[in-house]
Write a structure and sequence with these properties.
The complex is a heterodimer. By secondary structure, chain A is an alpha/beta fold. Chain A is 49% helix and 11% strand.
Amino acid sequence: MKEEILNKSIDPTVHDMLAVAEAAGLETVWERLEQQLPQCGFGEIGVCCRNCTMGPCRIDPFGEGPTKGVCGATADIIVARNLLRMIAAGAAAHSDHGRDIAHTLLLTAEGKGGGYEIKDAAKLKRLAAEYDIPTEGRTKEEIALDLAKAVYAEFGKQEGPIQFTRRAPAKRVELWQKLNVDPRGIDREIVECMHRTHIGVDNDYVNIILHGLRTAISDGWGGSMVATELSDVLFGTPKPVWSEANLGVLDEKMVNIIVHGHEPTLSEMILAAVQDPELVALAKEKGAEGINLAGSCCTGNEVLMRHGIPLAGNFLQQELLVITGAVEAIIVDVQCIMPSLGALSACFHTQFISTSYKAKFPGATHIEFHEEHAYDIAKEIVRTAVEAFPYRAPEKVHIPKEKVKLMAGFSTEAIVGALGGTLDPLLDVIKSGAVKGIAGVVGCNNPKIQHDYAHVNLVKELIKNDILVVNTGCNAIACAKAGLLVPEGAEMAGDGLKAVCKALGIPPVLHMGSCVDISRILVVCAAVANALGVDISDLPVAGAAPEWMSEKAVSIGTYVVASGVYTVLGVAPPILGSPEVVELLTAGAEGVIGGKFAVEPDPFKAAQLIIDHIAAKRRALGI
Amino acid sequence: MKEIFVRLDRCLGCHTCEIACAVEHSQSKNLFGAIFEHPTPKRRLFVEWVAPEHKLPVLCRHCEDAPCMHACISGAITRTPDGVIITDEAKCIGCWTCVMVCPYGVIGRHLETHTAYRCDRCPDQDEPACVSACPTKALVYRTVEEFSADVRQVAATEMLAGEGG
């Protein structure tokens, strides 16, 4: 295998498929990155401003050229404004996902959901209690209607508070209030980001960044948490489940359907439709043995967590799925879907099916999804996929054999369940030092980093040092493929963590779900902090996003820091053009909010930063 | 012998060549390191705006009969066997005579080192950093013969098109 291909990923299926792509002359994300190089240095360090047409302006980082934009904005102002817009976009993406789930719950409660039902009535009642919604003697639909309306109102609220933010420890909420970063409403904070970054509004970089914290909190403890909690009510709260991951989950004899994107409303119905006897019969009539459903990215995580549907791959593998020549349809909704899939699918029999009115793609077949008619539309989508099967070109089919067993489904409820109904066993092993602390490792892939290299090596290094890892998103998929999500993965852990995993029969790395499910990690942190009577910032915990690329990741990193957690990024955000903003986020923030960022691309050095941080927090707690 | 040529209709004014030039002339050789260095790494070419809509990188032509070399009173400016005009920082006394006589205005004054600096064609690279970095390939690194041949080809095509039209 060519070194050039080996350097792109640590995953053998990627090497395999890139060799196929090269032989067939097919372009992937890696070639497009090479074509973009060198990328614009002004953009890389965040000193390019396009917010008005007196510009575009940019600041010369070498100080020879302009030091101010036309309006007078310095590098500090431009960098902070650009960062705030990234947070706004990320928070908007997560929160709009949350809104869609709330909408589905509302329709379902009103009896207008085209096939949805309330799967977790117990969780519905727990959430209703948080909102002071009466539950006694009421049907689950009646409760759900009130809950959906109350949650819906969080988006348009003007004066706060967002109810789920009150799950944070009291000390944390007081700090947010003192700093004036307690969110007033989910949409309001995002709108205010756009207002503040308009020409001539907020020009104090500290004030801008503080609003970034408030907006990000409205995501993590707001929109994302809404998405997670209401998805659990509608589709069931995840419980430990076994499955498999990597391109080898595709089956040459079956109709292979990939669900890709983010919102479980679509994928839940596709999952129901692929089991419909009519469509299974159609698949057999077309010459297949049946229908095989697999997931990609966070949609993959959603259906894995609740149903054990296998994971086909993470973000950088989406094009490779098509290149296997064995995928009849890649069905997408929103977020992290490469527009390149259109042209690439055209080289195969693969149906690239877009479903959201918000997300259309060149070269896609658009079958618009509406929750009111969910099951009927899902059947139409699956039928389109099945009907593509006879057009598969056998000579183009190349499915890598690798697939790895995994255990997922670790919702907060499932973790408490695995611990025997209380967090105490976890607190005990943390206090005893068998487990030194907890690291949440999350985030995307980025072709600037060898695919999965930073994810897998950081996590391995952490568990080796007795740090329990909880993960979501594309990190979880990377770890699944590396064999870290099985109880036997504990063999790679340090003696303390290994013993704990063996006693409980759990993996050393707990898959907690999709990217909105980072809200589950916040809930765990809050519960641990409350049990110890401290703030989250006192805990021996840390966050990391070793291969991040999206604006959503910027919002995540910011709400994690705003929650008081030290967070290590593997890719530098575009802020280096302002030494002041860099100083604030990587040093000054700690004294204010209790958390801060670090940037370290080397996963081994990043692990050391986390290990040292956790050791320092343990010392401060006297454990 | 190759020269850095500018294709006059290609520049979009993104200044990427300037960034790449300064980075190549830094100690760390990467942007994130270079912007924090002292002495400050300097770009040796300049994207100029020619109103109303043209942009153009201007850089040392390494003239055959170089006025700066003749004018240098301290003997700091010499020509390498490859034909590249270089300024020896150790010999430069900072009199700025070279700046005065350069018809292109592409010799810089480094306020931290008190010496003159200019394009050195990136002796450590096969292709100068500005050329490699240019996203629109406005900058090319070719021999005079190659560059002229391309220009002739375009001119010939246009002449025939004119006859046909």
